[in-house]
Amino acid sequence: MNENILIAIAWPYANADIHVGNITGSHLPGDIVARYHRLKGDKVLMVSGSDSHGTAITIKADQTGQSPHDIYAHYHPRFIELFQKLGISYDLFTSTHTENHFQVAQKVFLTLLENGYLHKQVSKQWYSPATNRFLPDRYVEGTCYICGNENARSDQCEKCGNELEAEKLINPRSKVDGSTPELKETEHFFLDLSTLEPKIQEFLKDREDYWRPTVLNQSLGNIQSVGLKPTSVTRDLEWGIPVPLEGWEGKSLYVWFEAVMGYLSSTVEWGKLHESPEIWRDWWTNQAAKSFYFIGKDNITFHAVTWPAELIGMGDGFDKRMGNPEAKALVLPYDVPANAFMNLEGKKISGSNNWAVWGLDALERYDSDALRYYLTVAMPENRDSDWDWEDFFQRNNNELVATWGNLVNRVLSFTWKNFEGKIPNPGKLRDADIELLDTIKAGFEGVGGRIAKVELKAALAEAMRLASEVNKYLDVHAPWFEIKTDRDEAAKSLYTAIQAIDWLKIMFAPFLPQTSEALHRILANEIAFFGSPYTQVVEDSLGSHEVLGLDASLSMARVGLDLWQPVELEAGKEFLQPQPLFKKLDHSIVDDERSRLGKPSV
Ligand SMILES: [Zn+2]
Asked: Ligand 1 centre from 165 Cα, in Å?
């Protein structure tokens, strides 16, 4: 049975380049799960885009003397370039600064208003007497009233992960000029989370069995201990999506309130771009569809509480506004497998201090699959992890190259030379051959089952363990010795090893797509597993924006076709001359890379 799978990946703020922590936190795990489901024949849509609004962008604009649009326009194409090079296979990577997203976000707002979950409230907001304007939350820093962190943002504390009530911040200061702001009254809309609380609890309890404990603690745990309060969803800020009501000029939708709607709006945009304007419902109103949200631990509340609250609050009203007379409710998140953080050489990654490994920069020196391999084995699935250059070097050479790359290379090269570039005919297989093949075959369940549960480190470790099993088999049934005395025995060993490699290639494909495709070609398959990325410029009333898409028209992975299964290798079939899949690294890279850290980038 194929399923409808939405892979929703956190929208990166378009105010800085993407580093390895961002990649392993959300983009890569989402890509691995998406590719697995595509191979299974599921109907997959993987979406995200640049978060181009909010004060993360306007602060950077203020600092550099540019417009917020300039900031977004600088980083957005760099994200697209990185994803293409790293094989992050978005069906659509777009932006929040599009007419489509504005329309969807305003519809969500109006639906929640109509359903009675938004109410107006006068609140106090930090105001700068020095510059005569309201200061958005991110412009104000101070001491967290929950954990005492002295550098908390007024809306959220990065140290304890809690959302903060801005006016409770201790010792506030303006990030713009360091001056002390004062509280002043302003009117805003609030989302009534307290009324929605019972339904949010029910939603979370339904998922208690399989969600990560860290995610449950920060959502269900928080609700059970402190409960939910109404949260403001508009801001005194020009840059953003206007509140679609008269008399609210100069105020916009809060960036966190609208950015999460991007998962919905990008699905709608993908349909429009593919001349299927109704198809978004396959993932959003079909209750059997599964949606996975790949995010970092700092975003848990917005994805496990606020966004579900928006979805529950809309009921069938959004679908109705989209023109469906038999409107349905929207699909709630199936899983929110939030990752913890990746540090770098034992210290927290800091972009501003250049204590970071930047994605595009690393791709100048390393192949994408070498980076993807390490970013998966060191993925911060349940606790913070560390990017360590010595570990990167060791794992590349001792695991990726030694266990998997060399296995493929020596088996195929030896066969190429001794069996005229054809898969040898094994005749009747021996018990040991059948035993190995049964072991590898079980990997479709062993590796696939773990990917389906988003246990990606364990899934990759299992695929690597199976590759070691083939190496162990070859230690006993060494065709390079057998061929000297008995060519038929060597043919059996080589056929068995190539069959195992052909299946492992599929299991490695979600993790290592580039080299798995290369191996797939070497084994004389003309059609690639996955589609190819493309970019397109979309014009709308806000100007134009570039999107990244995936052309799957010439790929093997198709809806309804299950490629995630053992298919018997054809004896006698010709294959292409093998090339090494991976590069062994020189140990000097460890010192070279460490010496770059923390220095201004060139
Ligand atoms: Zn705190």
From this structure: 11
Work out the widest C-alpha separation in the chain, in whole angstroms.
91
Spacing, Cα 166 to ligand 1 middle (Å): 12
Assign 195 to helix, strand or coil.
helix
- Distance (Å, whole) CA 403 – CA 582: 11
Report the separation in Å between the CA atom of 296 and the middle of ligand 1, taken as the mean of its atom positions: 17
Measured in Å, residue 164 CA sits from the centre of ligand 1 at: 8
On whether the CB atoms of residues 439 and 466 are closer than 8 A, the answer is yes
Ligand 1 center to 153 CA (angstroms): 9
What pLDDT score was predicted for residue 377? 98
Distance 222 CA to ligand 1 centre (A): 14
Distance 380 CA to ligand 1 centre (A): 21
Q: For residues 175 and 111, what is the distance between their CA atoms, to the nearest angstrom? A: 35
Nearest to 284 by CA among 337, 322, 240: 322
The number of residues in the chain equals 602
Which residue(s) pair with 91 in the sheet?
A: none
Residues 447, 36: Cα–Cα separation, whole Å: 10
Asked if 96 and 51 count as a contact pair (C-beta separation under 8 A), the reply is yes
Task: Compute, in angstroms, the gap from residue 341 CA to the centroid of ligand 1.
Answer: 17
Which burial class, exposed, middle or buried, applies to 332 when counting CB atoms under 10 A from its CB (0-12, 13-18, 19+)? middle
Going from the Cα of 238 to the center of ligand 1, the distance in angstroms, rounded, reads 29
Task: Name residue, tokens 């010595």.
Answer: 390
Q: How far is the CA of 600 from the centre of ligand 1 (A)?
A: 30
Please state, in angstroms and rounded to a whole number, the distance separating the CA atoms of residues 43 and 6.
8
Residues with Cβ–ion distance below 5 A, ligand 1: 144, 146-147, 149, 157, 159-160
For the residues of 284-321, what is the DSSP string, one character each?
HT-TT-EEEEE-BGGGHHIIIIIHHHHHHHHTTHHHHH
Task: Give per-residue pLDDT as tens, 117-162.
Answer: 999 999 888 999 988 888 887 789 999 999 999 999 988 898 988 8
Write the pLDDT tens digit of every residue in 299-343: 999 999 999 999 999 999 999 999 999 999 999 999 999 999 999
* DSSP percent split of the chain into helix, strand, coil, nearest 5: 45, 15, 35
Cα–Cα–Cα angle for 72, 32, 377, rounded to 5 degrees:
100
CA of 427 to the centre of ligand 1 (A): 68
Q: Cα 97 to chain center, whole Å?
A: 20
Q: What is the distance in A from the centroid of ligand 1 to the CA of 364?
A: 38
Q: The pTM is what?
A: 0.94
Q: How far is the centre of ligand 1, averaged over its atoms, from the C-alpha of 236 (Å)?
A: 25
In whole angstroms, what is the distance from residue 286 CA to residue 278 CA? 12
Owner of token pair 């008399």: 247
Report the DSSP pairing between strands 234-235 and 252-253: antiparallel
The three-point CA angle 421-427-430 to 5° equals 110
Whether residue 590 is predicted with pLDDT greater than 80 in this model: the reply is: yes
Q: What is the 3-state secondary structure (H, E, C) of 112-141?
A: HHHCCCEEEEEEEEEEECCCCEECCHHHEE
Residue 199 CA to ligand 1 centre (angstroms): 27
Cβ atoms 72, 14 nearer than 8 A: yes
> Distance (Å, rounded) from C-alpha 112 to C-alpha 261?
13
456: which residues sit within 8 A by CB, 6+ positions away?
29, 32, 33, 376, 379, 381, 450, 511
Span from the CA of 150 to the centroid of ligand 1 (angstroms)? 9
